[in-house]
Amino acid sequence: MDSFIGIRFKKETAKRFQTFSRTYFKSHTEAMATMLDFFFYNEISPKEKLGPTGRTIEAKLLKRINAVIAIMRDVEKTQTKPMVAMIQSLFEMEEPAKKTLIVEKKYAEEKERVRFPASRTGGRKKPALSAERQNTTNQL
What we know:
By secondary structure, the chain is an all-alpha fold. 56% of the residues lie in helices and 0% in strands. Helix 1 crosses helix 2. The mean pLDDT is 78.
């Protein structure tokens, strides 16, 4: 069995170390050995900072994400939506209203009359034809 040696620490530091050691390790010796191995293996000093913590990285990342979202909303509002509206208006063509043809009254009246063939009239008189149609000769 290895022998123990006493090291003098301030009371507050010793209490913090004991709490840390009990949380993560079986004994104080194992905790101290693991901490020393960590610093020697990674070749760092306990006094230097390792860089940003997870919280600061997360905060910076959230700021950048919010900035990107704001840029995307601005692009959508100023570019995408107006462009889509213009393209839709080009493809949506209204059908022109059907205009009625301008027809002279005499031709319109002729179309309204119903004409029956001679065989189906059954002895009835044929409807009267207009004056222009009765003149079959090409006289002026």
